[in-house]
Design brief:
Layout lengths: L6 E8 L6 H13 L4 E6 L14 H12 L5 E3 L2 H5 L5 H11 L3 E8 L12 H7 L1 E5 L7 H7 L6 H7 L11 H9 L10 H10 L5
Parallel strand pairs: 1-2, 1-4, 2-3, 4-5
Helix pairs in contact: 2-9, 4-5
């Protein structure tokens, strides 16, 4: 990962299992709408609030990410959560990126589906103090209105997060759908970057 980043830097974490075009579009929307200088993709080791029975080894998820963003100077990849191991907590990542890039203003990018569990995040109020927390509406069956009703944070954080919610492109792609299509022998072209499609094929990932 580039050292000494400055300006407004976004953090976009996830399992990336696999990394797909929806992730890339979200990162581009965040880059443009939040006025970022870079977006740092951070693949997690173990997600603390999500069961991932089909989570493939970290080396493959990292390699797919790196292949997809190669040559795009807006995007960088950090393996800090993979090196740290164990449950990947956002607060630990925010603190470490603050330490690595002290001149940067950190913007944490999250999907609207995270709102219902945000109060369960480790040291959530420390996260909100350390960075700008920006939520992008996600597509699918997720009801954003219900999430707003279920956002259990103290004032003024609840009002601020809801006021700052951002609408990007609503790309109907999910990693679970891609895994299902691969298992069924269906094409994933146009759902993932060509380099990711090739990597999955070469390493026979998600085929069951």
């Amino acid at each position: 990962m580039n050292s000494g980043l400055s300006g407004r830097v976004g953090i976009l974490g996830g399992t990336f299992n696999p990394f797909h075009l929806g992730h890339m579009v979200l990162a581009q929307d965040a880059f443009e709408q939040l006025g970022l200088t870079h977006v740092i993709f951070v693949p997690c080791a173990t997600p603390p609030h999500k069961k991932c029975c089909t989570l493939i080894p970290a080396r493959h998820r990292l390699a797919m990410l790196e292949a997809a963003i190669e040559g795009d100077e807006r995007f960088v990849v950090s393996d800090i959560e993979l090196k740290r191991g164990g449950n990947s907590y956002a607060i630990d990542t925010v603190r470490e990126i603050h330490s690595l890039h002290p001149e940067a203003t950190i913007c944490f990018i999250a999907g609207s589906d995270s709102l219902v569990e945000l109060h369960l995040w480790k040291d959530i109020y420390d996260i909100l103090d350390l960075c700008e927390f920006r939520v992008f509406e996600r597509p699918g069956n997720f009801d954003v209105k219900d999430a707003k009703d279920m956002l259990r944070l103290k004032s003024p954080w609840r009002e601020k997060i809801l006021a700052d919610m951002t609408r990007g492109h609503r790309v109907e792609i999910s990693s679970s759908e891609i895994r299902h299509r691969i298992a069924e022998g269906l094409s994933i072209r146009y759902l993932v970057h060509p380099a990711v499609e090739m990597y999955i094929s070469e390493h026979r990932l998600y085929a069951g």
